[in-house]
Amino acid sequence: MIDVIVLTKFLSPLLPYLLKLGDKAAEEAAKKLGADTWEKAKAIWVKLHPKVEAKPSAQEAVQDVAQAPEDEDALAALRLQLKKLFKEDPTLESEVTQLLAEAEASQSRGNINIGGDVKGVSAYDISGGSITQGDIS
């Protein structure tokens, strides 16, 4: 089952651009948010868009979030509409779940270098990497 909270958090800042998909200026602006993130968001939106377009309440929820991506009420309405879409179409849910997992995996890659007078480090959800620790003073 897909986590619609994670999905809405992922899509909400990109919805203004996704709604203008194909517009060169919008695509260039969105790429500044991260090319990989943008490509994953587009792939998810290509799956969702036909279902959203077919349902006026889902269209309205998407428009509301695009206009106010931080509005908790708008986000809640979008989450509800997404749940309904996924309940009606389990294949869509499965496809979007896979794409969202890929998007999350690509966002969590990177290096973190910590220097200076640091005596402790806390980390969360580390996989496929290495941690070296020690007091080099």
Write down the secondary-structure element order: HHHHHHH
Mean pLDDT, to the nearest integer, reads 82
When the domains are counted, the total is 1
Oligomer: single chain
Query: What about the largest sheet?
Result: none
Beta-strand residue percentage: under 5%
> Structural class of the helices, strands and pairings?
mainly alpha
Backbone shape: globular
Low-confidence stretches: 109-116, 124-128
From the structure above, extract its key features.
single chain, 137 residues, mainly alpha, 0% strand
Structure description:
By secondary structure, this protein is mainly alpha-helical. The chain has one domain (4-107). Helix content is 63%, strand content 0%. The chain is built from seven helices and no strands. The protein has helices at residues 4-11, 15-18, 24-31, 35-53, 56-67, 72-88, 90-107. Helix 4 (35-53) runs antiparallel to helix 7 (90-107), helix 5 (56-67) runs antiparallel to helix 6 (72-88) and helix 6 crosses helix 7. It starts with a helix and ends in a 30-residue tail after the last helix.
Break the fold down into its secondary structure elements and pairings.
Layout (H helix, E strand, L loop, with lengths): L3 H8 L3 H4 L5 H8 L3 H19 L2 H12 L4 H17 L1 H18 L30
Helix pairs in contact: 1-6, 4-7, 5-6, 6-7
